[in-house]
Amino acid sequence: MYKYLREDIKKMEAYKVKESNYKVKLDANEGIQWLKGYNRYPVDRSDKLRNKLASDLNKSPDEILIGNGSSELIELVMKAYLEAGEKVVSISPTFSMYKIFTIIHKGVYKDYPLTNMKDLNLEGFLGFVKEEKPKIVILSNPNNPTGTMIPYEDIVEIVKSIDGMVILDEAYIDFADTPPKDDTNDYKNLIILRTFSKAMSLAGIRVGYMIAQEEIIEYINRVRSPYNVNSLTQDMALVALESKEIFKNNIEEIKTERERIRLELVKKGFSPLPSQGNFLFFQASKDFGSKLEEKGILIRGYENNLEGFFRLTIGEKEENQQVLKAIEEVQNERS
Fold first, then answer.
1. Taking a C-beta distance cutoff of 8 angstroms, is the pair 139, 109 a contact?
2. Which of 268, 271, 272, 245 is nearest to 258 (CA)?
3. Could you tell me the CATH number of the domain that includes residue 151?
4. CA–CA separation, 88 vs 133, rounded Å?
5. Is residue 229 domain-shared with residue 288, that is, in the same domain?
6. pTM of the model
7. How far apart are CA 107 and CA 165, in angstroms?
8. pLDDT by residue (tens digit) across 139-159?
């Protein structure tokens, strides 16, 4: 929304790349071709990819912006809206980069603790937001690292109640038991982020997308670097969108394995939180991660107020079996 934009960004215009048919193209200081087509800069706004996503999502292409994963998109929102000293609010625990990006962009980060690390007290959170008066609220849903979800009706209540921008980070939404929803047409201050890194298994190409009203996308384009998404990434993302049956099967396999591993961990004495992501979050001894690493198994461990908590990604069945075997070995060594 215009009223939340940084004052200096209100006066800016987006960098415009002229893209049209040509016989000879000598306007961009590009090199001589040796690998077909890749001497040229990529299409600036990833038009083919935006058009395909728009068709799939029943949106206008102008309501979609492509970025290098969700991370770049989060930073672009901060570049457009966050003045030095203004606040960003999220929940705790959540994705650590929210705080880091806020600090980089000279904002002040505040978080509101989840009850028992899984439930959001909506009334308490709304009171917290009213007191802090943030310019931006960021919610990871399903949440990383807990895997828990805020009910969508609560998300809508937050969006309606907040005098600021709301970023709904849905990196893991494809693993949830409920289908994603999109109310960006109804709320000017809502921005939804999704990614190809998780359910589509393409973390290596770094691509994500933003859904918001056309006005918001236009403002974000003012601070976006030209040609921000390379040609190879755009091409691979288009291939992925034509391969949905593969990803649908992969998602179902991960959800099945997620429940199987959760039950196995319970049998072994752990208490993993019920997860809607492609991972499980649980508490163990502080050296649990290092003991597994000695056996060649890497899981995510946390520090400070989350010391002793771990996040285990659900992999292929064979990988998961190796993890369970290593966990059993660690437990046997302690007994």
1. no
2. 272
3. 3.40.640.10
4. 9
5. no
6. 0.94
7. 14
8. 999 999 999 999 999 999 999
